[in-house]
Amino acid sequence: MLLALKRKKTYCWPCFFSFVGVLFLLLASEYASAAESIRKLSSADFLHTDSVVPPPVSESWLRVRLPDMWQGEQHNILPPLGWYRFDLGPIPDDLEQGIAITRTLMTADYYFNGTKIGRVGGDPDRSRYWNTPAMFRIPSGLWQPENNELLIRLAGPPGFIMLVPLELGPYDLIKASYDRKRFLQNFQPAFFVPILFTISAFFFTLWFRQRAETQYFWIALAASFWAVYNINLAVAEFPFSTRTWQWFAHSCTDLYMVSMAFFANRLTGNHKPWQDRLYFTFAILALLSYALTPQSLLTIVPVILHLIGLGIFINGALELFGYARRYRNKQFALIASGLVFSLLLGFYDLYMSTRPAAVVDTVIFLGAVAVPVVFMGISWYLTGRFVNALIESRRLNTELESRVNRARSALEEIYISQSTVEKEKAVIEERDRIYRDLHDDIGAKLLSLIYKTDGSDISEIARSALQDLRDVVTRSKSGDAHLLELLADWRLEAEQRLLGSQISLLWEQADELSNEPLSSAWAVNMARILREAISNIIKHADADIAKVVICQQGRQLHVHIDDNGKGLPDQTRPYSRGMNNMKRRAEQLRGQITWQRAASGGCSVQFRMSLDNFTPPEQGVLQHIV
Fold it and tell me: From the CB of residue 243, how many other CB atoms can be counted at a distance below 10 Å?
């Protein structure tokens, strides 16, 4: 599709200029038709009267030349009604005669020898046949042998009434001339109206999908405004008053030129805030001027405002030319050439609309045809540009998806590798923890059985083993427990174990301890530290008194376990396995544990930790241990 667009761009401008040549040939044929055997009625008698029936010849008729525009003192009359009388002379050889008029401002009734043969327009304040030709067949039975007259009753809003020269001749020739004018003046502008609205809807759709591409918005607005210009040339009956429609039509013409300037600025990326404000200010002033201008100035103010609008349009075209020259962009140069061409036709149309009344009956507005063709050329370029951007975005998306897939594969490999490392690390940690649990629990009790062989000792050890087992199972499954509840359980267990070894327990517990819930993992680790400390007193201290002090300072929990035994062994010796296990458990609780000589000469185990910083191990690991 992209290659097709590139190939067709080569034929765009030859086709455009071919179309322009055909248009001018049609215009030439139209003007040549005036040289045929058709009689032009360029003068008439005028009578100002509000009579609805043809006035007699005896009235005070005033001789006038056509076109006769109702301006100045001569036609400063109210109500805006009047009659024109044409003396057609004797009966012609060919009775199949017709009458044609290029345009009517605004409504007219046609009478031939006192009989009404046709009417142009309806409500004088709503009909706008200013660019619509009319034609009537003269019934052969109405011709008189000597004197024949044509009367026209003309009406319209003040300042918008005019009668142009009429054509009288054989009906076939009149019909052919009328068809050509109807085609050029009405059918051609009407043909391009749906095309312009389609272009507008298409680019509005693109803009809604790509809000950042504002050139689509402005070209869509410009196409809509110019469609109104074509409607003004093609349609004769409106549901609005003439003054309202003129305000709307003139405003759309100026807004079209402002929108095209905005389009050129956005297309080149050279828009300036002060320039935008200037364009918006002109647009608002134009809308207000058309609404507030008095009727007598409506033939002057639109010309002035249209000239200012053309200046804004020229500025946009020059910016396009400058961009094309600076960056050697042929497409922009072609667009700028199209804008200049439509600009020249705009000057032509504006000039023709202000020409002297002597030639107003031959005016053909070329912008109604040429400007839509320029719009189609711009639409072709913008559509190709959008297609190219769409193709490029799809290519980039495909490339991005490929990169994402490669990155995802790499991440999955890293994840698998990391998971393997973490699993291996977890297995090692779990093995060490199981080893510590086995040493702290079963090893300690087996050692106690060696020293205590009587029945009571065996019973005590069995109870202790049962308590440990219950500890692991219940703490890992029951969830959170409160601090005071845990301390009560640990105190009872310590008393029972020390009592079996004839060691007294002194338990000091501060009153300000916070009774908050703690996780089962915390409870199990803390219980192991206390149990190992009690086991060391029983096995190694040769003490008869053990003292446990528990207090809290802020969020710090302090636990001191002292005895009056023989004290610490030689400091040069490494920690025993039990002491290493206690240290690792303290690290899991993010606390610190130290061993010192007590004041009584024995050993003092001091442990402290923050209740806020605790991160418990996974419960699943504890359940796996059980």
Answer: 18
What pLDDT was estimated at residue 255? 94
Number of H helices, E strands in the chain: 15, 20
Q: Which of 7-16, 216-225, 431-440, 517-526 is the least confident region?
A: 7-16
Q: How far apart are CA 217 and CA 271, in angstroms?
A: 15
Please give the DSSP secondary-structure letter assigned to residue 127. Answer: B
Structure tokens at 237: 């009956």
| Residue closest to 486 by CA, chosen among 519, 459, 535 | 519
**What b/e readout covers 69-80, taking b as 16+ CB neighbours within 10 angstroms?**
bbbeeebeeeeb
Task: Give a three-class secondary structure readout of 472-535.
Answer: HHHHHHHCCEEHHHHHHHHHHHHHHHHHHCCCEEEEEECCCCCCCEECHHHHHHHHHHHHHHHH
- What does each C-alpha distance from 366 to 23, 376, 587 come to in angstroms? 9, 16, 92
The answer to whether the beta carbons of residues 263 and 336 sit under 8 Å apart is no
Listed residue (402, 439, 476, 401) closest to 577, CA to CA: 439
Burial 104-127 (b: 16+ CB within 10 A, else e): bbbbbbbbbbeeebbebbeebbbb
pTM score of the predicted model: 0.61
Tallying the residues shown for the chain, one arrives at 626
Nearest to 540 by CA among 516, 509, 573: 573
Strands 134-138 and 97-101: antiparallel
Distance, first Cα to last Cα, the chain: 71
Q: What is the pLDDT of residues 363-389, one digit of tens each?
A: 778 888 889 999 998 889 888 888 888
Tell me the average pLDDT across 611-618.
55
| Torsion on CA atoms 374, 376, 382, 385, rounded to nearest 10 | -110
Whether the CB-CB separation of 441 and 478 falls below 8 Å is answered with: no
| Residue whose C-alpha is closest to residue 250's, from 290, 197, 283, 223 | 290
Quick one: pLDDT band at residue 3, thresholds 50, 70, 90? very low
Give the least confident one: 69-73, 146-150, 278-282.
69-73
